[in-house]
Every structure is written in structure tokens, then in C-alpha cells.
Specification:
19% strand
């Protein structure tokens, strides 16, 4: 899910202003917004219940760690 949108994000990332939020739908970078709320409102207005991506432009991507999964305490099935 969001493969197209993420490809558009990474392709355009070097030209996007850091700290702002982008709205991407399919193959289209719809706009750049000051807040995530503005981007979400515009996405809902334009696309309704269709999927769209809102992402903050950052130098480095955040890394998420879930120790319970790493330690095997919880199990999450892989999609692949």
C-alpha cells in the first residue's frame, strides 16, 4: 500500500521544503502544507474515502522500534 505515493515522495524529496507536509494521491503530488491538519482536510475534501498519503518532509526518516515484536513477546504476521 502507498508504493506509488512513496515513490513520488522520494523522487521529489530533495526539492521539497523541510518540515512541511505533502499530500500525495496516486502519481500526483497534490500540494505542500504548513500543517498535517491542513493536508488531511484537503485530502479528505478532494478524495473523500480514497487512500492518500500525508507525510512530513524530513532530512532523516524516523526509525520505529517495537521491542515486544523484536523479543518475540508479540507476533505480527508478515505481509510478505
Amino acid at each position: 500500500m502507498f508504493e506509488k505515493e512513496l515513490a513520488i515522495y522520494y523522487k521529489a524529496k530533495s526539492t521539497l521544503p523541510l518540515g512541511r507536509f505533502v499530500l500525495i494521491h496516486g502519481d500526483e503530488l497534490v500540494g505542500v502544507f504548513d500543517t498535517d491538519a491542513e493536508a488531511l482536510v484537503e485530502g479528505a475534501r478532494r478524495f473523500g474515502r480514497e487512500a492518500f498519503l500525508v507525510r512530513q518532509v524530513r532530512d532523516e526518516e524516523p526509525v520505529f522500534s517495537i521491542p515486544a515484536l523484536s523479543l518475540g513477546i508479540l507476533r505480527a504476521p508478515s505481509a510478505y
